[in-house]
Amino acid sequence: MITWQCGRTVCFSWVCPIRASSAGLTSVSPPAGESVPVAEQFDKEKANAEFQALDNVVNNEKPASTPGVPGVRLTDAEKDKCEAEITKLYKQLDDKDDEINQQSQLAEKLKQQMLDQDELLASSRRDYDNLQTELNRLQAENEASKEEVKEVLQALEELAVNYDQKSQEVEDKTQEFEILSEELNQKSTVLSSIDSELQKLKEMTSHQKKRVTEMMSSLLKDLTEIGIAVGSNDIKQHEGSGLIDEEFTVARLYISKMKSEVKTMVKRCRQLEASQAESNNKMEETERELTACQLRISQHEAKIKSLTEYLQNVEQKKRQLEETVDSLNEDLVKIGAQEKVHAMEKESEVQTANEVKKTVLEQERLRVEHEKLKAADQEKSRKLHELTVMQDRREQARQDLKGLEETVAKELQTLHNLRKLFVQDLATRVKKSTELDSDDTGGSAAQKQKINFLENNLEQLTKVHKQLVRDNADLRCELPKLEKRLRATAERVKALESALKEAKENASRDRKRYQQEVDRIKEVVRAKNMARRGNSAQIAKPIRPGQQPVASPTHPA
């Protein structure tokens, strides 16, 4: 399809109906001239005016013509303008081809970017799978540590129950020992009082015996002296009887005195004998009580010895239990530290789970965006296919234009020859004016039809060009958005990787810090326990869980 726009006249127009229909130039688009430069737009009104002027000129001149030869006159200026229009149309076609090539390259770039984004999404999915595997492993380790903590807590509860039982037994034995100690103190007090009374009785008995002995010895001495005196008086009786009577009276008085004294002495002796019998009875009773007390003392000593041994065993058990309590305190400190560590790990796991959830949501969002981008890519592929089809149509149109160019060249040559024939046959045309009028009328109608067809084809080409320009603008508008989304996805993946790395570093740092804190607490507790025990005996073999307790000794009644 070729259209020549001249100053006054439309010189020639021709179209190939078959090629025009095969080119598919029937699409509907917005009004013509929207994206075409003003200098290159087709002025339909101007063409109609030129066509009317040409029709008027032809009708006024009424040239003669032979059948099959149109009555059209071409000047050199009109030929130059027509050639300029043809060159301009070729230039427009080349511009359209360049735009189509640019759109194809743009579509290829978009395809490459979509492939890169697919690779990024696949790598992010692999990273998510790795994170999920790591999370499952951490959860399994957490469950195992929870089971271990439960077992340790159960063992600690059993040890606490055993410790409470032993403490209760120790308290009971301590109370029994205190009761026995009080009874022993009472018996010792009674025994000491009985010993003091017995000692007093012994002293009183010895004192009475001593006094009786002294009195008897003095009495015997007096009697001896009296006998001696009486015997000497008998010898000296002949010497002086008066003196004898006096002495005898004195002796009688003395004897009566002695008799009264003897009576008193006998009475006193009887009293002493009675008191001695009573004292002997008391001594026997005291000896029996003393024997019973000694027996009870021996029993109590044996009991005290057994209690002492039992107390030693209890003390040993107490030290062992203190050792066990210390170890349990250390274990409790460890468990407390481990619980803190587990709590921190749980918090970190919760944070990791939240981050994983956020990552999953982000990945879901990225997947949705990927689906959207994929749909957009499919849409772009469809548009690219349409552009390719349009490019093929353009190529077909170019081939048609080449054929038309050859045809136009031939027609130009034919027109040149016809011009010569027109000059030669001018006289003949004047003669046959009536016949020429009918021929000119038919030729004008055919030219109008061809011009209308060419105008329609030009409008369709303009519409296709504007559609291509709009598609190119849409692709250029969507390209920054896709690049921005791709950069945002890459930045999000990098941020997630850095967050995961930072979370791992924080977790390892927290583990080290808590391990150091646990070691420090262990050292402090151990130092406190050593300072509290002081110089007490150290038990080489601590009590193990399930060990049989030491049997308590029997307590005699």
From TrEMBL:
It is found in: Cytoplasm, Cytoskeleton. InterPro entries: Khc_C. Residues 525-557 are annotated as: Disordered. Keywords: ATP-binding, Coiled coil, Cytoplasm, Cytoskeleton, Microtubule, Motor protein, Nucleotide-binding. Signal peptide: none annotated. It comes from the Eukaryota. Residues 79-187, 255-338, 387-524 form a coiled coil. Its main location: cytoplasm. This is Kinesin heavy chain.
